[in-house]
Amino acid sequence: MSNSPTLKKRREGQHPTADEKATAQEKFLKAYAKTANVSLACRAAKIDRSTFYEWKKDDAFAARVALADEDANDVIEAEIFRRAVKGVVEPVINGQGLVYEYEPVLDANGEPVLNSKGKPTYKRGKQVTITKYSDTLIIFHAKKRIPGYRDKVDITTNGKDMPGLTILTDGPTTVADPRYVQRGTRPVGEDVSANE
Question: What dihedral do alpha carbons 87, 89, 90, 91 form, nearest 10°?
Answer without folding.
Answer: 150
